[in-house]
Inverse folding.
């Protein structure tokens, strides 16, 4: 075999080694869709084309017409593929080191520009060869690409070395990758100098044929270290995602049970703690439990005057003041902006509880210093006791809060819940049922629509359909006023059937208007309707009747309804998605399900509860929690919707947290469909 044949075979072998690495990268990409894997796969695919094209071009130059069209075409392909290989390689290595996408501005345009630069080199080399300038032609065809590739590989080895030096644990593959990338870069630089020397001196150095063999060995080392590096990277990513999920779940559990501003237990936690204390009463028949509901007066006026941040500081000072006054065994919780609960366990006499409550209320009324002025907060309280007043936590809290409201209305400092005579009389349910059915028959139930905004596109991509009752006497009523009664009386199924049909009909009208871009519609479904087996078929029938593709329909289910019968919920979600209907998990973060459930549910969208957004402007912990939850949901190939966005600051934080879609009063209130006709034509949202 001649030296030229050996060089051709060597370069062809390098191309096959590069092809093997490209195939492995494409296989990695199928199992784990990461942008840096795509960039690396494209990079080594381009290198394969460049090496094999160069080998064929070299073979044709030795065993065919050096100036022939086939040889020029393969040379053109080889040089055109080289710059995209280097650009994609740079992006992929950076993305792999950071375990996230690495982009540059106008990436496709830069790839095309690189390919055009390689094309110009090939054309220049062909033009020089056609005029008999063999030396310069070889320099353009080989020396310049070798030098460019060598500089890129050396720079990447330095980048990887810096990243490895900052790692907290030792790994062998990054070290091998650093050495192999650096050595391959030096090999390419040496090859550029060697080629230039032989062309200028018009001589052939015998060892030059073995330089390519070194390149082959180094390229195989790069392939091996890259595969090991990718495996270790995936292992680190999985481990990091697992740790983040556990930390996020712990933080989510904390924020579900605590007030974010003060760190006090919230209503849910207080109710749970009270329930446990009630169970302990069985062993203490002579003991009682007191619940003090404490409400601040004129809190809204104070909040508007001071601003949100200073008001929260004031609440924290008030919290410390109450804790200083109450006995250590008492437990303080915050159940609203202006509302607190104090759990008084093991009370022997009511007089002691009343004395403690009176002392706390008196202490609350002492002036606060604010900007050189004295600020007085007045409060009223309500007391209830277990087991005399009730034996359930929810009833005890309700009675204490009702007594507090009555105390505030009557100008009293403290009132006790003494009997059940102050409860409102139960409504005539037959009359309520008749009123609901009459409203349904007369089409008093209407759909209002709130826009769903894509952060990436900055335009409306869909609407959430919201049910309202246009009551002839009480005006426009939200579902909170009638949904529970409708469910208890068996009217809800008929209302939801009307909701489904009206929403899809409106969607069909939007799609029939050629001046509007296609939008989606989100429909809320009750837990009772969600468990009914005919739901997927019924929705498919409604879509078919109105001529609407099911892919534009999104069904919203609550977290609790999804896990109440988990296996049945999984089956229903699967059947809905088989028919093309999207599924959203609504109010995520308000139920009791663990984050582990989310992976099995396999919904399309997750809607963060508005509690993730409220107060995020002044709480770095809440911002970190929200960002971690969004990243976790994205890792499960689901998209995130943030609802309740009411200020530009909240919108900015949601963009920072990388949510996909937002909705809220800042971007559009629930209105009739006709109100959004002009906005749909313009599409662009001014809030951005």
């Amino acid at each position: 075999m001649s030296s030229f044949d050996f060089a051709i075979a060597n370069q062809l072998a390098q191309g096959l080694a590069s092809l093997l690495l490209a195939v492995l990268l494409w296989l990695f990409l199928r199992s784990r869709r990461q942008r840096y894997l795509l960039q690396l796969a494209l990079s080594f695919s381009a290198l394969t084309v460049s090496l094999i094209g160069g080998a064929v071009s070299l073979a044709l130059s030795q065993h065919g017409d050096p100036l022939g069209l086939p040889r020029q075409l393969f040379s053109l392909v080889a040089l055109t593929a080289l710059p995209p290989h280097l650009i994609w390689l740079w992006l992929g290595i950076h993305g792999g080191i950071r375990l996230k996408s690495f982009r540059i501005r106008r990436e496709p345009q830069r790839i095309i520009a690189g390919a055009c630069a390689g094309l110009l080199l090939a054309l220049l080399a062909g033009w020089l060869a056609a005029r008999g300038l063999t030396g310069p032609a070889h320099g353009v065809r080989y020396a310049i690409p070798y030098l460019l590739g060598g500089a890129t590989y050396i720079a990447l080895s330095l980048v990887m070395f810096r990243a490895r030096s900052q790692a907290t644990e030792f790994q062998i593959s990054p070290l091998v990758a650093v050495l192999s990338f650096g050595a391959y870069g030096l090999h390419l630089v040496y090859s550029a100098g060697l080629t230039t020397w032989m062309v200028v001196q018009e001589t052939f150095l015998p060892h030059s044929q073995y330089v390519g063999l070194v390149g082959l060995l180094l390229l195989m080392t790069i392939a091996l270290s890259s595969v090991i590096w990718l495996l270790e990277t995936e292992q680190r990513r999985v481990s990091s995602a697992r740790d983040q999920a556990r930390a996020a779940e712990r933080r989510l559990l904390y924020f579900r049970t605590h007030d974010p501003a003060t760190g006090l237990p919230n209503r849910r936690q207080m109710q749970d703690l009270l329930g446990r204390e009630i169970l302990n009463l069985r062993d203490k028949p002579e003991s009682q439990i007191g619940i003090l509901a404490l409400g601040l007066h004129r809190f809204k006026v104070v909040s508007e005057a001071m601003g949100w941040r200073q008001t929260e500081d004031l609440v924290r000072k008030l919290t410390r003041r109450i804790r200083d006054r109450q006995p250590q065994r008492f437990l303080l919780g915050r159940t609203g902006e202006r509302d607190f609960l104090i759990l008084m366990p093991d009370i022997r006499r009511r007089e002691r509880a009343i004395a403690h409550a009176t002392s706390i209320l008196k202490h609350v009324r002492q002036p606060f210093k604010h900007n050189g002025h004295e600020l007085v907060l007045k409060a009223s309280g309500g007391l209830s006791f277990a087991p005399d007043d009730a034996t359930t936590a929810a009833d005890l809290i309700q009675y204490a809060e009702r007594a507090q409201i009555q105390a505030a209305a009557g100008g009293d400092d403290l009132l006790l819940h003494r009997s059940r005579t102050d409860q409102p009389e139960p409504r005539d349910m037959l009359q309520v049922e008749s009123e609901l059915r009459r409203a349904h028959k007369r089409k008093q139930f209407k759909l209002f629509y709130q826009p769903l905004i894509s952060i990436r596109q900055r335009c409306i991509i869909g609407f959430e359909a919201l049910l309202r009752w246009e009551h002839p006497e009480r005006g426009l009523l939200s579902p909170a006023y009638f949904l529970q009664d409708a469910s208890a009386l068996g009217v809800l199924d008929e209302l939801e059937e009307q909701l489904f049909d009206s929403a899809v009909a409106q969607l069909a009208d939007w799609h029939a208007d050629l001046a509007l871009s296609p939008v989606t519609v989100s429909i809320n479904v009750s837990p009772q309707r969600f468990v009914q087996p005919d739901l997927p078929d019924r929705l498919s029938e409604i879509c078919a009747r109105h001529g609407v593709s099911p892919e534009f329909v999104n069904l919203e289910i609550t977290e609790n309804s999804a896990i109440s019968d988990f296996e049945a919920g999984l089956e229903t979600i699967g059947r809905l998605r088989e028919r093309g209907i999207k599924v959203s998990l609504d109010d995520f973060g308000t139920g009791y399900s663990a984050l582990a459930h989310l992976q099995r549910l396999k919904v399309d969208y997750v809607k963060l509860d508005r509690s993730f957004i409220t107060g995020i402007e002044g709480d770095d912990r809440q911002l970190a929690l929200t960002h971690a939850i969004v990243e976790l949901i994205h890792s499960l190939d689901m998209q995130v919707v943030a609802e309740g966005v009411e200020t530009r600051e909240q919108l900015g934080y949601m963009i920072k947290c990388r949510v996909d879609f937002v909705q809220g009063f800042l971007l559009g209130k629930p209105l009739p469909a006709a109100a959004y006709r002009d906005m749909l034509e313009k599409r662009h949202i001014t809030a951005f």
